[in-house]
Design goal:
Layout (H helix, E strand, L loop, with lengths): L3 E9 L12 H7 E4 L1 H7 L5 H12 L1 E10 L8 H15 L7 E6 L11 H10 L8 E5 L7 H6 L2 E4 L8 H16 L6 E6 L16 H12 L4 E7 L13 E6 L1 H17 L11 H10 L5 E4 L15 H8 L3 E8 L1 H10 L4 E6 L11 E16 L9 E12 L1 E7 L9 H4 L10 E4 L6 H4 L5 E4 L35
Parallel strand pairs: 1-3, 1-4, 4-5, 5-6, 10-16, 10-17, 11-15, 11-16
Antiparallel strand pairs: 2-3, 7-9, 8-9, 12-13, 13-14, 14-15
């Protein structure tokens, strides 16, 4: 069979509705960005959705026509002008070759654009404008997607990640391409069963290797093995968007009765587990004291309220201040602070740094902490991910400074770098396993980087725009009631 021409496109962003850091075109270009044939050259063989789509398309006899793939670090609202320019890049590459036989689209599912409603659905509808009539669209979604009815309606099939920490990008991309191939080979369009729950699970409780999500994902996988079910996605949702369609969802495809039964069963299990999806947090002073008393390290202090992967700035100082106050030894903290990096560069390696660091993006994550210590390293740093998260992709840390203050090592970066891969420490000559205390600006994704060496982990009750207590967040568009903000809310799938 002759190759079918498939439009390939992707725009990914996880938008924190409480961040004052607007997301610009430069933010997309500085993190992951490729146009046209460069997409294939850069991502073929990588552990990404694009890598999986490339292999899956080849197996299905699909000819990929790449247009744009881009991904900006989670932060505040995407600027309207930036979004329009990204759509313009897709059009630039697609228009001369249209119409296409189908499309593969890489989305996050929690993008919010200034002045736009349901931006992810908007991307799918835009892509459809370059397809032949009735051509199918299959898209991938993050586990933290806030799936809307509009997005479900826009795409023929949505395929969500099954893992958190995320490690199945490649497999889901390959699955999406396989499903598209089957649709083009004549498979009947599957029925959709969508269940949206009034539920905001704490991010630190969403790991798919631990209860309750492990058993819920197991139920979804079991459903996929039953006759009549094509695929079943569990989306835990992204609590830090400020959109009407916030929260967890279950989405199944297949024969109508089978898909409905699968969605109802898995959604019922998710709702029944709602009390298990609340976070038990430890005060910062107690958390540091407990980590110092531990006989073996490293002990991870989880600063989930300043979660870089959730759109927080990554410059929160509450735990750093407590480590210094209690004179902790063998601690390591990474902070985003371009101003302090520049100051450290002015001092130079071997010099003495004196200044206030951190908490400069806003006042939600503590206050700047005055420190005095030795400069151990200053310079630009990039690395290639070699762990389970998007293996093979390059990460730019910008300029980096490493300080030694009392018994604590402080890594300062000029670009925001989430702890998704231990290489962001190893490339600086820092061994995570040799630390007594590791502060991570993450909810659960840090487990993919450090889970194999950690002796213990403590969930800390720090302030921030990724608070594990959604009742502390200033929502303006959230549909109420919703659990756990409204503990008595009742939900049924009917």
């Amino acid at each position: 069979m002759a190759d079918r021409r498939i439009l390939l496109a992707g725009i990914q962003h996880e938008t924190n509705g409480f961040s004052n850091l607007r997301t610009t075109l430069a933010d997309f270009r500085s993190y992951q960005y490729a146009e046209g044939s460069a997409i294939i050259e850069r991502y073929a063989g990588s552990g990404t959705e694009i890598g999986g789509m490339i292999r899956g398309a080849a197996a299905a006899g699909l000819e990929l026509v790449p247009t744009l793939f881009t991904f900006a670090m989670p932060a505040g609202l995407v600027e309207a002008g930036a979004f329009e320019k990204l759509l313009g890049v897709i059009e630039h590459h697609a228009r001369p070759l249209a119409p296409f036989d189908g499309a593969l689209v890489v989305l996050h599912g929690a993008m919010d654009v200034a002045g736009r409603e349901d931006a992810d659905a908007g991307v799918v509808r835009f892509v459809r404008g370059f397809l032949a009539p009735n051509a199918p669209v299959v898209a991938t979604l993050d586990y933290h997607a806030n799936i809307s009815q509009g997005l479900v309606d826009a795409a023929d099939v949505l395929v969500g990640y099954d893992t958190f920490p995320h490690s199945d990008f490649f497999e889901r991309g390959e699955e999406a391409a396989s499903i598209l191939g089957r649709l083009l080979d004549g498979m009947e369009r599957p029925a959709k069963a969508f269940r949206k729950l009034p539920l905001l699970p704490a991010t630190v409780k969403q790991a798919t290797t631990a209860p309750p999500m492990a058993r819920i994902l197991a139920a979804a996988h079991a459903a996929e093995g039953r006759p009549g079910v094509l695929t079943c996605t569990v989306a835990a949702g992204y609590t830090y968007g400020d959109v009407p369609h916030l929260g967890a969802a279950v989405l199944a495809y297949g024969e109508a009765a089978a898909a409905t039964a699968a969605a109802d069963h898995v959604a019922g299990l998710l709702w029944a587990a709602r009390s298990e999806l609340r976070a038990d947090l430890v005060a910062p002073d107690e958390a540091v004291a407990r980590a110092m008393r531990a006989g073996r390290g490293p002990v991870v202090l989880v600063d989930a309220a300043d979660n870089l992967g959730g759109g927080a700035p990554g410059d929160g100082t509450v735990l750093l201040a407590e480590l210094l106050r209690q004179q902790a030894q063998g601690a390591l903290v990474v902070l985003w602070d371009p101003e302090a990096v520049e100051a450290a560069a002015g001092v130079g390696v071997g010099g003495r740094f004196i200044g206030a660091i951190g908490a400069k993006a806003d006042r939600h994550h503590g206050t700047p902490v005055p420190v005095e210590g030795d400069v151990r390293f200053v310079g630009p740093k990039t690395y290639v991910r070699d762990g389970s998260y998007m293996k093979g992709t390059r990460v730019d840390m910008g300029h980096v400074a490493v300080l030694r203050v009392q018994g604590t090592t402080i890594v300062l970066t000029s670009l925001r770098v989430p702890p998704f891969d231990a290489t962001h420490l190893r490339c600086l000559g820092l061994d995570p396993a040799a630390q007594q205390i590791l502060v991570v600006k993450s909810a659960a994704a840090w487990r993919g980087a450090f889970g194999d060496v950690v002796a213990d982990a403590i969930l800390t009750d720090t302030p921030g725009i990724c608070s594990q207590r959604p009742d502390r967040l200033p929502y303006s568009r959230l549909r109420r009631p919703v659990y756990p903000i409204d503990p008595a809310v009742v939900w049924t799938h009917s």
